[in-house]
Structure formats: C-alpha cells, structure tokens
Amino acid sequence: MEKIIPFTIKDLAKITNHRSGEIKFGEKMITVPKDTDSLEFLKTCEAKYVLFGIPEDIGIRANYGRPGAASAWDSAIKSIANIQHNRFCKGSQLFVLGQLNVSAEMKEVEHLDFNDIDDRSKLSQLVEKIDKDVSHIIFNIIKLGKIPIIIGGGHNNSYGNIKGTALAKGKPINAVNFDAHSDFRILEGRHSGNGFSYAYEEGFLKKYFIFGLHENYTSKNVLDIIKKIEDRVRYNTYDSINIRKEKDFNQEMALALEFINDDFFGIEIDLDSIPNIACSAMTFSGFSVEQLRQFISYFAKNKNAAYLHICEGAPDLGEEKNNHLIGKLIGYLVTDFIKTNIT
Ligand SMILES: N=CN[C@@H](CCC(=O)O)C(=O)O
C-alpha cells in the first residue's frame, strides 16, 4: 500500500468546520495513526467502509476526453467531513484510507497530446500502471472483509475495482453501471471508455448490466457486440425509461438486480449520466439526482454489493463559485450507500 498518501487526523481537522453543539463526520471518521501501516491498522479497525480517492484523469485524456476529474476527491472529502454525524448516519463507519499517489503520472501527462499516436500509447501505459495499483489496493481492502468506496478519477478505474474484487473473492464478479455510456469500447489500449470490456475479456467480469445508456452515444459496433453476449451483458436505455416511458425505472432496477445478483457485484456510478454535472462528457439530459440516489439505495441493500465507485465528476470543469457542489453530491451518494448497505 506504499502508493497511498494516507489521510491524517490533521488533514481531517483542517477541512472540518467545527461548530459548538454539533458533531461532524470529520470529528468521527477514522484515520490511520501516525507511523502506522494503513493495512495493519485496517485489520484492527472496526469501520466497515473504506474511503479511497483516485485523483487522476489520465484515462479520460487517453479517451479523447476533457481532463478535470482529478479534482473530485478533494471536493468530496471536504464535503463528507462536514456531514452531520447523527442518528441517521455515523461518521465512525468510515475509515478514510487516503488517496492514490498519482502525482508523478499526472505531471507526466501534462504535455501529452491524444492526437499524437506515441503520446496516446504513453497515456494508455500510464493507465495500465494505475490499474495495477488500484487492483492491488482494492484486493487488500476486500480481503480484509471491508467495503471500498472509491472516488475517482476516470471510469478507467472500474477495471482495477473489478479485478481487485474478483481476485480477493477468488472468482469473477458482476457489475451494475449507472452510466450514459457502456465503457465497453474495443481493446485498443486502456482508457476510460473500455474498463469493462478489458475486465470482461480478462475474465474478471462475469455479468454486466449497463443502466440508462444514452442511445445517441452508443455505437452500432458496441450494440452488436453486446447483442452477441446477452447472456452476460445487458442494458436498458435512458431514453426508453425517462423519455418514451416504455420501461419503468423501478421495474428496470429489479430486472438489473435479478441479472447480477447471483454473485458479488460492484456498483459503478458515472456522474456523466446526470444533467448539469461538470464532467468530461457533461450533458443537459439524463436521470435526476433523486433517481441516482434511489438507485444506490436500492442496490446497496443487497448482501452481494461489494463496493461503490463514483467517478468522472470534474469540479475543475465547473463554475468556479459552485465547484463544491460535486463534492456535496458525492457526499449524498456515499451516505445513501452506507445507510442501506447491509453486508
Ligand atoms: N467513461 C466515459 N466514457 C465515455 C465518455 C468519453 C468522454 O467524453 O470523456 C465514452 O467513452 O464514450
């Protein structure tokens, strides 16, 4: 776990706005004591959930996207530290592991250009490097019987989450992905658009349900591939649920759960499925925040839910005066997960 920058009690104190008569998550969340190995500490720690940040956007750059998602972790942890610790949710359920140290990699990509074939290959190689670290860390967390809550970063990190969980569980896992995009693009070198196809091809992902695909942004090629493997990969579209009303949101959640619930599954949330959220693939049309919150609550209730990954939110691409809002949204999603997760 040497690639982790631990989050200390001092870091937490700096971002918590203390008020007399109130108790904030920042006063109750668990951090690793000074000079203690995170993993050793985690073995003895009672908190069930492990918060882990991946402040990178290299996978997004390698996918011709707009960088900015590296800033979501900072924004999220600041918001989470200021949630009220009360009868509805307790900060002490969360261990703040810290963030993946990607500073060297982020420096390296500053001047790389997606349009240059050599640069693109360098970007993909760096994504592979991050994949290894992410899967190693997720493996260790899950092996200890804990539940990771991962704040990205690009959706490329679905690969490391799935691989790490599968290795820890000793078998391939399933995933449900609330997303406008399939991220099942061809195996052309790693990036944020092919985390699930790589995990599938390499045998870490068994069954995959994509919830709320945007019909306008899914290629014929991907639809054809998915059609051929529909015993293992299924989807519904946002358009068929919220626009044409051919399908019902709640019934679709039940169908998706039935599909993936024969084994452990990861819950993947891409914030580019929600309108007006600053993201690489920002949109004005999509499911509401309330639908997303209901989705997390619904899937978290199941004992097979192995982790939660929230990604692609990019405060740096948002309005300067309101760039705390993505962190605040992530805070709601994290507490929705904790409040209903019963594993
Ligand atoms: N993870 C997101 N993948 C989408 C969006 C790409 C982008 O614009 O950043 C995709 O590959 O289509």
Strand order of the largest sheet: 1-3-2-4-9-8-5-6-7
The total count of helices amounts to: 13
The helix-strand sequence is EHHEHHEHHEHEHEHEHHEHEH
Distance between the termini: 25 Å
CATH fold assignment: Arginase, Chain A
Q: What ligand species are in this complex?
A: N-(iminomethyl)-L-glutamic acid
CATH class: Alpha Beta
What portion of residues belong to β-strands? 15-25%
Number of DSSP-assigned strands: 9
- Which architecture name does CATH use? 3-Layer(aba) Sandwich
Q: Sheet bearing the most strands, described?
A: 9 strands, mixed
CATH homologous superfamily placement: Ureohydrolase domain
Overall residue-averaged pLDDT value = 97
Structural class: alpha/beta
**Cα gyration radius (Å):** 19 Å
Q: How would you sum up the global shape? A: globular
Q: Which percent bin holds the helix content?
A: 25-40%
Keywords:
13 helices, 16% strand, 9 strands, 9-stranded mixed sheet, Arginase, Chain A, alpha/beta, 343 residues, binds N-(iminomethyl)-L-glutamic acid
Describe this structure in words.
One of its GO terms (biological process) is putrescine biosynthetic process from arginine, via agmatine. InterPro entries: Ureohydrolase (IPR006035), Ureohydrolase_dom_sf (IPR023696). It comes from Flavobacterium glaciei. Belongs to the arginase family. The structure is a single chain. This protein has 343 residues and is of the alpha/beta class. The chain has a single domain, classed as Arginase, Chain A. It contains 13 helices and 9 strands. The two termini are 25 Å apart. It binds N-(iminomethyl)-L-glutamic acid (NIG).
